[in-house]
What we know:
The protein is an all-alpha fold. About 60% of the residues lie in helices and about 0% in strands. It folds into three domains: about 5-50, no CATH class; about 60-90; about 100-175, no CATH class. The termini are far apart.
Amino acid sequence: xxxxxxxxxxxxxGGVQKDGQVKYEADKREPGTxxxxxxxxxxxxxLYVLTGVIxxxxxxxxxxxxxxxRDLDERSKASVLxxxxxxxxxxxxxxxxxxDEDLELFTKRAEKEGVPVEVMVRKMIVANTExxxxxxxxxxxxTKIDTAAGSxxxxxxxxxxxxxxxxxxxxxxxx
Length: 175
């Protein structure tokens, strides 16, 4: 938020002469803590002035939450942190080894759908896993899937991906 202040205004708020303000802005002199404290009290984002990073002040709800948290005993604080942790969305990460052909197939499909290739790989793996296990598709809340080389799901996914790549290759060669 811009405050609409000029150099004279800043100098007055900061308790310095206009010449001092000009030198601060020209990096010929560094302001002291009294100056920074005074302009912060006037609404200047001091973090932005010093680093170029806009600070993210807490909302009224966040201030109230923090104040209430600080009033709690250690056991209650642990309960609050546990509750927060339980409410966070979960993501499980695993790696998948793809052949160059499979990667090319996923890349082309991802480009066609306008999504990152990682999203396309995840969608295909989940869809094929659900098909193999006979599960109806679920919209969210997925659990970690074992796609290791020796697992049944991993073998099935690779078999399906190989079959898809072969169909694609035949289709492309027929054009």
